[in-house]
Amino acid sequence: MKKPGVLLCLLFILVALSFVSAQTTNQSVDEKAYSCLESKFNNSCAKLTLEQKAFSLLALAYNSDIQSDCKKALEDTSQNKTCWPAGACKIKDTALAVLALDYTGQDTIKSEEWLLSKNITPTELEWYMQIDSTEATRCNLTAGSEVKAISIGENKKTSGNPGACFSLAYDNYWLKIQPSCISKNFSISCDKGFVSSIMYKKTGSSVWQISSQVKSESAYGITNHKIDVLCLSTGNKCDYEGTLWAAVALQKTANDISKFTPYILALAEDYPKLFPSAFIHKTTKSDSSLRDIASSQKTQGYWDLGDKGKFYDTALAMFSLDESEAQTAAPAKTWLQDNQGADGCWNSGNTRDTAFLLFAGWPKPASGITIEPGQADCEPTYSCIDQGDCAFADRLDYYCSGMEVCCRIAPVEQSCAEKRGTTCSSGQECDGAEVTASNTNYCCLGNCTTIPTATECVQNDYECKSECATDETEVSYSCNAGEFCCKPSVTPTPEGKSNWWIWLLVILIILVILGILFRNKLRVLLFSLTSKFKKKPAAPARPAYPPTAPPISMRRMMPMARPPYPTRPVPAKPATRTDKELEETLKKLKDMSK
Fold first, then answer.
1. Where are the domains of the chain?
2. If you placed Cys at 344, which of 32, 60, 387, 567 could pair as Cys (CB 3.0 to 4.6 Å)?
3. CB under 8 Å to 345, separation ≥6 — which residues?
4. How much is the pTM?
């Protein structure tokens, strides 16, 4: 038979393991994910891909040891700490490295300059000019050194010779700018009040983009226009994905990215799987891009554009949203909680996706960040705001943490009406983005639709889908047409619920084992307790004596009371049955832990 001390140690280990298990279950979504991601770095950051290094550094920069390891690993794969990877520098890889290193306080000026030096003029765009007036007018149109006289009629049509840099287009309502003249300066002056504007689109597309160059002047005033449009490339063809990431990185490091915006906007329809609206919203904070993000969100809460995968696309969408747009990201966080792996990571332990999701949804500040000499804190004198909310001309070189920039002008929250939104009434829901506004915490940028009656499936806390996932089981509750009712094959413990029943079970098992180990002592104790409550037998009749005490001699002659049976030690019995019962109990514990 095993010694009780050894068995008690085993019991203590079982209790400790149960406690650790319960603590892990009660961890929050991000805590479990951070623990999982940190566990992947026991063998160094150097073994990761460049993309994994960058996202991991962004997510785990709060851990000084991992930050140091990943920074070194990232710099070791660079070409003179200027571009990435060494020997085959690419726009996207360099942009990701700039984002990660800048987040940890590193100097990235050389890398920023390398990115900006890779600009070329895109050939995919067509540019047009419109001159409008409330009455017929004559105008002088200047392109470089060439000046031409044209007329704008009451019907808004243009007549006359616009010169070599222009041609009449769209039934003479607009002027098409020739590709060879894109880099020239244009000026317009009319004898009546007028408005001049620049528009563009991708060749062959029907989607028009209105540039910010919409200018008005009174009679004989002059408006000036300059088309600055660039993309980034390491060859002679624009790199769209690289330009997207470079725009985010360059804007974060206080560079003017306005020249890249027209190309990004016009080519978005050609690259829908890259989720361009997320990058556009991150850099411009336009309402239209927010609507695009909201409209592409799945009913379950995640995003999936079909190229990078739903976990990556969900991280990208959350990365583009700021605090005022948190309502749009809330369903995604619920979905991530429901689809988190048992180890805490996402997408079967995918390092890139888990790191990107953590940085986008639950970011932590980098450790050891020091303000550069002479660089003061931005706040409270100025405002640290999202980079897309501050015009380049209003940015200041003061310190802000994270992905924010220092802006001389504090953002003014618009009302729901100014954001072209509406407040849904009771019984309605928003089919688009939900944001905060100055006059309400709930502003719908989409349409308010009547909330449908919950299906039988949803009423029973399951989910209607077009197809159940591999880790789900189809059940017979009704859904809408073409959908199936799906439930998780293994029901996870709801976040935050108590596991009291586990502790109760552990305590009961411990009591059973202790009862087996010390059953002989328990029997004696039980006998002692129960014997106190039994009725004692009546004492036998004693002979009557005089009321006086007997003589002393008689007391000495009275026999002393002796126990009816001699007491002697009882030899211990073999404990084979106890060992068997203990082994059976431990076997049951082992089976229950599987």
1. 125-228, 370-411, 456-488
2. 32
3. 33, 36, 37, 351, 354
4. 0.66
